[in-house]
Amino acid sequence: MTTPHLTDLLDRYATLRDTILGLEAERDQLGAELKAALLDGKTVQTDLYRAELRTSTTIEYPLDRFRECFGDAATLEVATIDRKKADRLATAGDLDADTLANLAVKKPRAQSLVLTQVRA
């Protein structure tokens, strides 16, 4: 049985979640409009803020060149296995799907609080 206090907490949590989701959707829409304007060469600024576009970058090391420079042992040491790519190879028949499934180790990352609507 749920206590009244927990019911109140759940109601407040759901209200905040719904409010935040609405605000995030509005923020995303406004951001898309501002990005489009900035890409079109426009500038926008208020007394407090100036909007500008910055490009994020990631650094990758080409496998073949890394291997040439540092050798097989170092390459194996830093290599990671991409689960989605491995699954695609198993689906294509390049890897044995049963062996891959038996090799898999599931590690918990975090617990999430999930709300589902209750039909009255």
Key traits:
120 residues; mainly alpha; two-stranded antiparallel sheet; 4 helices
Q: Can you walk through the features of this model?
A:
The protein has helices spanning 4-39, 63-78, 83-92, 97-103; strands spanning 44-45, 50-51. The chain has a two-stranded antiparallel ribbon. The longest helix has 36 residues, at 4-39. The model has no long low-confidence stretch (mean pLDDT 90). The protein is mainly α and 120 residues long. It is flat. The protein folds into two domains: 1-52; 58-103, no CATH class.
Topology:
Elements: H1 4-39, E1 44-45, E2 50-51, H2 63-78, H3 83-92, H4 97-103
Antiparallel strand pairs: 1-2
Organism: Deinococcus sedimenti
Protein name: Siphovirus Gp157 family protein
Coiled coil: 6-33
Helix content: 55-70%
The topology string of helices and strands comes to HEEHHH
What kind of sheet is the major sheet? 2 strands, antiparallel
Q: What is the count of β-strands?
A: 2
Write a concise synopsis of the structure shown:
The protein has about 120 residues and is mainly α. It has helices at about 5-40, 65-80, 85-90, 95-105, and strands spanning about 45, 50. A two-stranded antiparallel sheet has the order 1-2.
